[in-house]
Structures are given as structure tokens and as C-alpha cells.
Amino acid sequence: LRVDEIEVRLRCDIGTGIVPVRLMASSMSGQWLKLEMYREELNPVTGAAIRFCTVGDEDNATCFLDPYPITGTIQRKRAAARRIGTTYCYDFLGLIEKQLVQDWTTYLHETGSAAKMQMPPLDKLFKAEELVLTQDGSLTRDPYRVVGTNQIGMVAWHCFLKTPEYPDGREIVLIANDCTVQSGSFGVLEDDFFKAASEYARLNALPRIYVACNSGARIGLVEELKPYFKIGWNDESNPSAGFKYLYLTPDDYARFPEGTMNVQKVLDEASGEVRMVLTDIIGQVHGIGVENLRGSGMIAGETSTAYTETFTLSYVTGRSVGIGAYLCRLGQRVIQMQNGPLILTGYQALNKLLGREVYTSQDQLGGPQVMIPNGISHMEVLDDREGVAAITNWLSFVPKTASSLPVSIVTPDLPNRKIGFKPPRTPYDPRSMLAGHYGEDGTWLSGFFDRGSFTETLQEWGKSVVVGRARLGGIPMGVIAVETRLMEQRIPADPANPESRETILQQAGQVWFPDSAYKTATAIQDFNNGENLPLMIFANWRGFSGGTRDMYGEILKFGAMIVDQLRVYRHPVFIYIPQNGELRGGAWVVVDPTINIEQMEMYADVQARGGILEPPGICEVKYRAADQIRTMHRLDPGLIELDKDPQINSVQIAEREKQLLPLYLQVAHEFADLHDRSGRMKAKGVICESLKWEDSREFFYFRVRRRLAEEHVISQFVAEVPGADHAMAKKGLAMLVEKKFGAEKSQDNLKVLSWLESDPRSVRKWISASKQEKTISLVLDIMATMDNSTKKEVLKALKK
């Protein structure tokens, strides 16, 4: 990242002789590592290069005496950015371009010939047009604007990328602080530009990426007033007695334009002079105080709106202060560089407030070691190259626009393969279930999703839940799974409080705690807003932690938030109780499909369990020792014989009961467990189907594809049929499918999917017929409100 030029010299045999050539990748002109090639003309005597000519069109070749441009403004800006540990904002364009090359290379290597496509030409891979704010407040695209000529500390680009997911191209809006302009602070002009660029992304439904490196809202004073103001002392001979006011002389007051300050004209009795006492300093420069805070509030509201309407992602490449930190949080999804703290105020200011040296760096306040465990930042990266790689990887799961669905890609991992990893009854790492792992003998045990596709986020926050994104047969999906092992929540000591100590809290597996419940709700919200991902929840919870500490920690509130987010989820949701998993009590309640019956479906593995209480718990209430003893007397031959004369055999009966009680406790548990199995769930209609874990990947692959195809049809229906909603369209499509295939075969996902994809005319015909029927119904309803003369006029007009 700190290399500005790469140079290779070589000699080429062109048949007619040897030609010396110099290859250069240079960032000196502004474009990051721009490739250039020169043919050297040598001094025939000394052999030294005396001229350098561009290679290509010989008639239009340009020759230079020196191929190295002198250090200019760009290099000075680049050096300034590096001094604070970040990359110059314009250089991120080059980083993105180079990362796209790496993404294509990796994808083509993994898929081989199965991809059936090639990487686009390098000059077609990436293009960025800088956004410029005009006088009327609108944005225009300027593809030829010179690098570094911006006059404010905020820049933005409309970028065109060709990715493996979108080989024909996709668009994003990239917004970045320019930390070389007043430390990247937010003034009125920066706020106006940021708002315009964010609105541009939102109104065009494009992903909005924000690269943050700033010093918060800009502060300032009316500098031109400093040399002129005077002090009205209480005692001119004794300054320690304090002062009454600041003032200007009438002559100095006349130097400044009207409106620069508010004054009160007074006559000083001691000196007899007229003084213009300052009551308010306003200044002529707009953007040094509260007006910047007003602008900060404006862009905070805009960012909050953008999160709900399109995909937003923030990358913290350097320290981000105050409103800069809030913008990252309001955009929700955050990637944080190791040396990029998110803070509300600097550590020096806090030390002054506390009156002692408590903090020694900004990282103590908002570094990744703080922002990753508290759930503000989703991912941590080491440098900007890794940060850009994380951005492009995240974008690979994001649809082209906010109104479209993510696309499926070709993957070498076949969707109909068996799942190699089997979830055991004992605690295990759920990541092995999702992504696979190497067994003890070194063999690869595949997971549910495509190999290498699972990307985890929020890893260090709410550790009892695992969330991320993955692909199923190439289909991008949101993922939520459950940690079955004992985890720890670490709460660090507060350096400002000498009495505080680090606290480590134990968190049991398969249980929702306040942080992990909040994490679950947050992940669902992220998947729903802008990402439009179908969601897979591997439900393996025994319930919520309801102890005093967790009740005080708002577990009830965060558990309810899960319901809130599922209720408004606009895309297919699949709840699957995996092999040897269980879903009980309140944990079942917050993910039950009736929360959002139009989108949610629940499935259970044949070896899964579901119920209110676990067998030992329900037996304490509904199958106690007395019930177990009655069962013994009903079934045990020995007790049946002894019961013929219970008074004589009372001692033997008691001994036999004591002997059998542990065994019959197990029988009671088994009896209760039989109520929790998938067969009863299916019979009661609380799940759609009972599945086998090793075959579930194939089932869900076709089920997800079918649901996405149906959602596409439903969206067309709602858009075209007057007064239609999602529920009406879904019900109508289900009736159409059942009419086509019959009740039983309509459950065959592959058959229905094949029909939807191969026979769009039938679907189109159904939509058109429904549109016509609904339109006629509406017209008849309207005409029913008319008198006869009006009806005749309408009919007459229709006949023309």
C-alpha cells in the first residue's frame, strides 16, 4: 500500500534487433499504479537512455527526456494520509480495481470450465466517475475531473464494476472523507455534499459504500477578530481581579462588515471612552460552529434513511470522530481497520475532563478491541488492501439494486451432494456444520453450505449465536446458527474507575442471552434491508436465559426484537431444527412461522426435538415418581404378583419400587421425549416437513430456488394487478400450481421450479387474466356509484 512506483527493465527481441523497454506501474499522476510502457533510445557511445517514447502507435508516440514525474500535490496529499495511518481517498479506486482482478482470478481458478465465462478486459473491469455538486445543489458525473482538485473534505464516485456475480456490470456509489482537507472534518459544504451523494445512491437504489477517516464536526473561531478585541478589567491595575467583558473600540468595530458581531455600546466611567461590548460573535464565514452540528444532524438522518432503503456499508480506514462515528453506526454494517478507532471524543479531552492521565490512546476508547466485542463493527481487517477485499466480498452477496434479488453463481460444490459433517449430541463448533471442516484423520467433512463461501460477521459479540452469509449451490443466503459450547463474555475494567475489575461471564450453549438475542435481531434486520437475502436459521435453542442479571440486562426486550424483525422480513425465511438439535419454550415462540406466515417455513430433522420443556423438566410436572410407580405396578410382573397381597408383601414391594425407580425414570423420559419428535410436529402442522440431515442440502437448494422464483412472480403480480398484495398473489399462485400439478405433486419443488422457469407464458397469462378480472371488478364497483345518465355516457365513450 505504500509503494508508489514499480519499475521493470527488459530487452525485447523484435526480430530486427534488441529493443530496451521500461515497464512502469506508477501512482505519481494520481491513478493508483497506472501501467505505462516506454521504449528507450540509448546513447550509441555510453549506452545510457537519453529518451523515453511511449509504446503503441508509432506515429503518435510521445517522447520524454525523463519518465519520472516530479513530486506534486498528489504525492503531498498521499504522504499526509499515510502519516495518520490511512490511504489517500483517491487511491481506493485503484485498490478496488486490483481487488476485482484478484476476485476474478480466484473465482475462475475455483470453478474452472464450469463458469463458462472469462474475466473482462482490464480496461472494462472498473470505471469511476467523480460526483460533483453543482450550484443548484444537484450532482453531476464528471469522468475527467483531475485527481485531487476537490476543494472540500468529501468526495464521491459513481462506480461501475464487473464482478463474477455480475459479469455484465453493476454500479455502486462510493463516498469518502478526504483527510488531507482540514483533517477530513465535517463542515457545511461537506455535509451538503454527503447528503446529496447519499440521496443519489438511495434514489437510484444503488449500494452506498462510505470510507470513513475524519475528525468529526469542524470547529473554528472568527480569526480576524483576534487581533482587535480588548479586555474590560474590573481593575486595570490588578488583572487577578478578573474582567467584565470583551470589547472593541468604535474604530475597530467599524473595520468589520455588519453582522459580524452583536455589540452593546457603553461608556466606561473610569476611562471615559466609548466601548463596543461584545455580546455575540457571529463572523462572516459559514461553517465554524453550530451550523456544522445542524449539518451533522442532517446527514445522520439521511444515513438512517439510506439504511432502510438501500444497502449501506462503512469502512473505517482511519480514526473517525463524533458524527463520523455516528454515520458508521447509523449505516449499521461496519468494517473496521486495525488502526481506525471509532470515537466520540479524543482521549486527551477525556483526560482533561477527568483531571488525570487515564487514557493513553484512541484505541482504548474505540479501537477494534472495543468495537468488535460490543457489536458496532462487524469485521476487523489489518490494512486497507484487506479492507477493500472485505468490501468486494460483502458486495458479492448484495443484489444489483435495492429492489432486486441477489444472483446465483456457478459453484463447483454440487447442490445434491451429501453433507459430510454430522452434528453430534455433544457440544460442537456450529461453523463446522455450516462450512465443513477436516476430520481427525485429515479427510474433509463438508458442511451445509458451499465450501469456502461462509463469511462470519459480529464474531466476537454475542458469542452464543453465529451469524454470517454463505451460498447454497451458488445462492446467497443469510445464516444464523447456535453455539452449543460454553462461551465467555468479557467485560473489561474501566480505566477511569480504579475500583472496576474485568468481569468474565459464562454463557451456556443453546441459550439466548441479552447480547446474542440482540445480535440475532440485528443480523435479521441487516439481511432484510438492502441485502434482500433469503434467510436460513438453524434453530437449536433450549430457551432464553431468564436469571436476574439477564432480566436486568433486557433479555425480554431483545428477545421481542427478534419477533419484530421476523414479522417485517420481506424474503423467504427457513427455520430448520438440525440433527440432534432442539427448539423449546420461548425460543420456539420467537421463530414460529405464524409470526410471518407469508415468508416463514419451519422444518425439523428426523432426529430433532421440539417442545415446551425438556423431558426431565416435564416429567417433574406431568410424570412424577408416583406416576412412575403406578406404571411399575401396571407393567412389572414381580410387582403384579406382589400386589396380590400388598399388606404381607409391603416390604418387598417397597424394595422392588426402589430398585425399578431409576429405570422407570428413564422410561418416563423416553415417553415424554416421544412427544417432542418430528413425527408429532408434522402431524400437528407446526412444521412443513421432516428431513434427513445428510439430504437437507439438496432439499433446501430446490426449495430456496422455488421460493425465489415464486417471489419473483408474486412481485410482478402485485406490481400489475390493481389492489393486489403479497398475500393475495401468493394464494393465487398456490392455486395455479395446485391446478397444474394436483395437491400432492404441487409439493415437488423440482417439478414446480422447472415449470416456473420453462413456461413463463402460463404465468404471464395468469397475471394478465387476474389483472383484467380485477380491473373489471373495480370498474363495476365505480359504475355502481353512478346514476343512469352517467353510466350511459361511460358506455358510450367505451364504444368509441
Question: What's a concise summary of this model?
Answer:
This protein is an alpha/beta fold and 800 residues long.
How much of the sequence is in beta strands?
15-25%
How do the strands line up in the largest sheet? 7-6-8-9-10-15-17-19
Could you tell me the radius of gyration in angstroms? 35 Å
Report how far the terminal alpha carbons are from each other. 72 Å
DSSP summary: helix tally: 26
Mean model confidence by pLDDT: 91
* Major β-sheet annotation: 8 strands, mixed
Structural class by SSE content:
alpha/beta
| Global outline | globular
- Residue windows where pLDDT falls under 50 for at least 5 positions: none
What oligomeric assembly is this protein in?
single chain
Structure explained in plain terms:
The model has no long low-confidence stretch (mean pLDDT about 90). The chain starts with a strand and ends with a helix. The protein is built from 26 helices and 34 strands. The radius of gyration is 35 Å and the shape is globular. An 8-stranded mixed beta sheet has the order 7-6-8-9-10-15-17-19, with helices on both faces. A 7-stranded mixed beta sheet has the order 22-23-24-28-30-32-34. The chain has about 800 residues and is α/β, with parallel strands linked by helices. Helix 6 runs parallel beside helix 7 and helix 22 packs parallel to helix 25 (about 760-785).
